[in-house]
Amino acid sequence: MEQVSNLSKSPSPLASIKRKSDASNDSSKKRIKTKKAKSASFVADEKLDFENGINTTLSKLDGRLLADYVAQKTKRFGGDLSLVELEDMHIPERAFRDTSDWERTRKLDCLPDFLIKYSSQTPQAKNLFMAPQKNGTPHTLVVASAGLRAADLTRVLRTFQTKEAIVAKLFAKHIKLKDAVEYVKKTRMGIGVGTPSRIIDLLDAGVLSSDKLERIIVDCSYIDQKRRGIFDMRETQQPLMELLNRPELKCRYGVGDRKLDLLFY
Prior knowledge:
Elements (H helix, E strand, L loop, with lengths): L1 H8 L3 H32 L3 E2 L4 E2 L7 H15 L5 H6 L22 H7 L22 E4 L3 H11 L8 E5 L6 H9 L3 E6 L1 H9 L10 E4 L15 H11 L2 H4 L10 E4 L1
Parallel strand pairs: 3-5, 3-6, 4-5, 6-7
Antiparallel strand pairs: 1-2
């Protein structure tokens, strides 16, 4: 009887296998959750510098992580989009110029030096103080979240302005579209600064040309008084993605003789 009793107390081989299987499944689930958490951690744990009004997280991301960041923001505001539509809006890693080695704070007054460091020299625009011959054909576009911010960016970038190369205002604040169209038609510009919606309107109107465009700078580190950046508001994120996904731009990201770079400031 004592032998039978001892046998009844010893665990069965099947029970032992089941426990190991359950433990393995739990461990796998934890690894999956941890992996998912890490992939989204730079979005959930964004570090905000309130003194300077900037989100410092983006400055540490390379091209691959920036592509992931943009994809997550697109998914956040694109709840009604299918998986195919989300994939169509994906900006590839090759599009992003890696600026993670920039060591200074991405404040407004540091933008000119940032632009100098990461601007490639090409026949179309030998330097930032020049402009293509044709009106309305900038070599650089700077995209801001709002008109007031665009005005600030325009002021600080006027260090590159000459009589033959205007730093052009391409934003909607107090400027009607028809007036903006006339302005672009008669303006030889090297750098254009504007909001996503207004830039799209001017491209659609046929007065703003991307033929000589070499770089698009997205002013994404800046946060407003409500701690929101250009990717944090539906009304700015969606037009920005519409702009960046225009076929004539997207086909040139990071490839070819007419390569177009995305720089996130």
